[in-house]
């Protein structure tokens, strides 16, 4: 990602990657200690950390939630198919690695719209012999591009699917109609499917989250926190699984983490389609 040019080091993006504006996947990668990010991403990431000093801990908490949800859905709910929208840059263990460790036949389709993630798609598609994983370069704002041949070639939509949206709905403003975009996807899923969401909120610390929104906007990146009631509406018509919508680190907690789960400013929930 860098090359030397005389006495200076120049960042060289992969083909198709615009490094004049930040991208959430690359900012998140920097928070988690990754190397697939650029100066513009690090600048916004640092500004967000100045607003919320514990942001790296929160990002890690979201990753642990993914692992807990995958284990629950495979081991307890019997799910063998996943659709993960807003995948981000691969961070091991990836969702398919957690799921296939328990059920090797599990199939996973990843979706993201960042060319950097596309460049890493091969890592996302390394699967167990019995299972399969696939990557689709698409955007939740255009759900019809997700519900395409590459999806149905990997997942059987006559059987239950777990749809995971981890810290991605925050990237859609209300005028983008995130609920309707989500419903286009969920209407295609059969009874017995599951929906898992994490979403940032101002409910726990309005001052810090407000400062983070201002920093994101100044850096030309969308960040829309939502209340518990707004997050709950994304689950309309689905049956919430215990413990319901709770702070992300409180959902079926199995690690130490902070004593107060509200230290991570995210709501999280899992629901089943009747």
Distance between the termini: 47 Å
What structural class do you assign from the helix and strand content?
alpha/beta
Which value, in Å, is the CA radius of gyration?
18 Å
* CATH class descriptor name: Alpha Beta
Strand portion, in percent?
A: 15-25%
Number of helices: 10
Number of domains: 1
Kindly state the number of beta strands.
10
Q: What is the architecture at the second tier of CATH?
A: 3-Layer(aba) Sandwich
CATH H-level superfamily title? Vaccinia Virus protein VP39
Shape: globular
What labels would you give this structure?
single chain; 274 residues; alpha/beta; Rossmann fold; two-stranded antiparallel sheet; disordered N terminus
Architecture overview:
The chain is 33% helix and 18% strand. By secondary structure, it is α/β, with parallel strands linked by helices. The chain has a single domain, classed as 3-Layer(aba) Sandwich (Rossmann fold), CATH 3.40.50.150. Strands 3, 4, 5, 6, 7, 8, 9 and 10 form an 8-stranded mixed beta sheet that branches. Helix 4 links the parallel strand 3 (81-85) and strand 4.
């Amino acid at each position: 990602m860098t090359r030397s040019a005389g006495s200076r080091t120049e960042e060289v993006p992969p083909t198709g990657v615009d490094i004049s504006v930040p991208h959430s996947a690359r900012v998140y990668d920097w928070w988690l200690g990754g190397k697939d990010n650029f100066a513009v991403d690090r600048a916004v990431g640092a500004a967000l950390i100045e607003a919320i000093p514990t942001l790296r801990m929160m990002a890690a908490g979201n990753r642990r939630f993914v692992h807990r949800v995958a284990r629950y859905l495979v081991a307890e709910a019997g799910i063998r198919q996943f659709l993960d929208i807003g995948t981000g840059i691969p961070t091991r263990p990836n969702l398919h690695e957690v799921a296939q460790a328990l059920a090797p036949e599990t199939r996973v389709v990843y979706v993201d719209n960042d060319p950097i993630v596309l460049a890493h798609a091969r890592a996302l598609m390394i699967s167990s012999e019995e299972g399969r994983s696939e990557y689709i370069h698409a955007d939740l704002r255009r759900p019809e591009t997700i519900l395409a041949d590459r999806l149905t070639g990997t997942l059987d939509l006559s059987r239950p699917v777990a749809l995971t949206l981890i810290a991605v709905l925050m990237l859609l403003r209300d005028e983008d109609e995130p609920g309707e975009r989500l419903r286009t996807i969920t209407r295609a899923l059969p009874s017995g499917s599951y929906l898992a969401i994490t979403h940032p909120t101002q409910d726990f610390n309005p001052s810090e989250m407000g400062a983070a929104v201002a920093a994101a906007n100044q850096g030309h990146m969308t960040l829309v926190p939502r209340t518990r009631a707004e997050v709950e509406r994304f689950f309309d018509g689905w049956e919430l699984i215990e413990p319901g919508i709770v702070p992300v680190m409180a959902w079926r907690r199995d690690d130490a983490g902070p004593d107060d789960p509200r230290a991570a400013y995210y709501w999280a929930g899992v629901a089943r389609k009747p």
